[in-house]
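Continuing the batch. This is chain 6 of the set; chains 1 through 5 are on the previous pages. Same settings as before, nothing changed between runs. Recording input and output for traceability.
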Amino acid sequence: MTKEISTKHVVLYADDDEDDLQFVTEAFKIHSTNVEIITAMDGFHALSYLKNLQDHEPAPCLIILDINMPRM
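Output for chain 6:
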């Protein structure tokens, strides 16, 4: 089985601060046209996203984590 090569780069960003999520998402949109931001509100949701990735879905090339969040 071969994986399809994605033209978009996936970035997983986990942060419980909505302002920070919006700021980083907007910065990527302004400066890059081939980045897809996946957001999670805590570490539990970030790990859940990673564990449930399908073979045809690209894995994140970058993971940004807030180290002081509720629920992990």
